[in-house]
Amino acid sequence: MRAIHILVYLTLLSLQVAGTYLSRYSGNNYRLTLLRRRPSSRPSSDVIRDVISQAVNIVKAEDGMLRNRFIQDVDRELEEYRDVDPNLFIDSPLPVSLLSRRCRLINWIGRLAREKRLRVPMTQILRHSEAQRHDVTCPFKLPTCSPAKPFRTIDGTCNNPRRPYLGAAFTAFKRESKPAYERENTYLAGTICTRDDKPRTTGVNRRPLPNPREISVRVHQSNSNTNPESTVTFIFTLWGQFLAHDLTDRAPGKGFKDVPLECCDQTVKTPKGICSNMDIPPGDFFRKFGRRCLAFARSAEVTDFDCSGANREVLNLASSFLDGGSIYGVDLNKLRRLRAFTGGLLETSQMKNLPISTHPNAKAAAQGFSFFLAGDDRVNEFTGLIGIETVWVREHNRIAQILSRYNPLWDDERIFLETRRIIISMLQHITYNEYLPKIIAEDLLRKFDLKLQADGYYRGYDSAVDPRVSNLFATVALRFGHSMMRSTFTLVDEKFKLGRTPALTLRNLFFTPIIFLNNEDSIMRGMSSDASETCDRIVTKEFVNHLYQTKTGNGFDLPAFNIQRGRDHGLGGYNHWRSHYGLSIARSFTTSQTSGFRDHDQETVNRFKAVYSHPDDVDPWTGGVSELTGSRHLAVGPLFQNIIAHQFQVLRKGE
């Protein structure tokens, strides 16, 4: 009986640490403006150490009852919580993350106790956990909204007067169907501590899913540096990246004390379950450089608005609205750094370029130049993205100067807000009037009410519509542009003739703002002239082997990341989503119109068959990006057309 009491104490202690200390988490790392803060002090490292040590010592004291092996197992499982930096209890991205860890520990203790034939009164444990459900996992509170304010908030709150948090930044991506995580046999079935949240690793027949790196190389890698060109310029692809950064910003999981993760470094201790690395197969390109592992950190977890904790949800740092967040940011602190606070203008640096970031960065220091600052923290990822952000900052300032000239009584704040409203309208009009018709067929544009009116006002707003960006859209469909990325980019002079400088290679345009600064006009003219590649299964080697590389061999693989991210986010397979949108599914690795991959060519299906065990196992990004479009004037196939059309429909109706 003494053993039972100790197990109960240990388990309740786990929940107490989660409940008491997590309620004190402020969430400053992710600027969570919707989290409530409690007026309590930050716990000291010594307090946390003492609590955990006490539990371990009590278990050890009952050596005779619990048996040495059981004590060693519990002690080893608690090693993560006892020996690593105790700030683990505070520096987790969101409360639900640590509650999840505590639940896993409780489940593990319960299963272990059952194996040792120890009777554990789980009813008492569950009663305690249910009592803390909302205290631990429900951080949201309603923001204060005023109907008298005619302008948008910076973070997307109050867009919907009935549900003011819908679409706001720092909330969960929306799910369109039940998550598809790896199934587990959970001890506390049907409780707050029961859920499947590990990335899928097995297919429908319980065979292991293929390695994402293997899929990338065998299905997506190009055998040439030049691939088929589409009917749109590269600006089309660049606009897609700009939209993706405006609507979505996935928060990466982080290590202890907010340190960036080193998932492939076995000497670095990382939080349990946060890494989901990919093995590099024998004979692979990366093997020549001594690499055996592609690091992959899972996305940061967040609770949904119902605070049930039933599913692992994914944090979106951006607002779901097409509101210029990549230009202006989504929190007031960032916005203050971007504004000039005179004449409604945004800050610029020399030659009307983006302002210079004062945040130290090793990559920038190596180039002898600082990174640019924009509303989007990822602006320096790609030279073209710097260019399009620069265009919009200059356009904002141009319009602000006109408004200031015609409205001399307006102060800085009024000019800024009016200008921002105009810029947002321009972004939305370009997207719906010019961008979407290149992606979505005419009949689907009408079906989803995406065609703009020639005059008058749109009357289709519905406050009951949930406008949030879906996990599927953000993780799968919106990434179709990765297939359209070029390997090289030409420099074009002011007469739109090729410059004397050789074409720029994609691998040299990641995190290199100095290249933009020296060639900004030529680069943007070139991207307005170069054609995008077609959207198909083929992805440039620059993305497959050289993503973000700083020296040959240390790059990453974007298609593999896309595939693994879909599994990380609990998204089902390609067939699941075809069925979800009323499209036919493939039951065989053929191109049969009735039972096969009817929207793919035979070469693609053969490559699917070579790596997947069953058609249901095909990953949604791989299956979707490989579809035939049916028209050379459309960028994507049927599945992605439906996903994208549905997302922009709810954005329009729920905005």
Could you explain the architecture of this structure?
With 655 residues, the chain is mainly α. It has 2 domains: 2-141, no CATH class; 212-253 and 298-451 and 474-653, Haem peroxidase domain superfamily, animal type (Myeloperoxidase, subunit C, Orthogonal Bundle). It is 40% helix and 4% strand. The chain contains 24 helices and 9 strands. The longest helix has 24 residues, at 383-406.
* Overall outline: globular
Uncertain ranges: 1-75, 77-99, 120-137, 186-192
Strands ordered across the widest β-sheet: 1-6-5
The percentage of residues in β strands lies in under 5%
Mean pLDDT: 80
The helix fraction, in percent, is: 40-55%
Query: Cα distance, first to last residue?
Result: 60 Å
* Count of individual domains: 2
CATH architecture classification name of the largest domain: Orthogonal Bundle
Give the number of helices. 24
Topology-level CATH name of the largest domain: Myeloperoxidase, subunit C
CATH superfamily of the largest domain: Haem peroxidase domain superfamily, animal type
* Largest β sheet strand count, sense and barrel closure: 3 strands, antiparallel
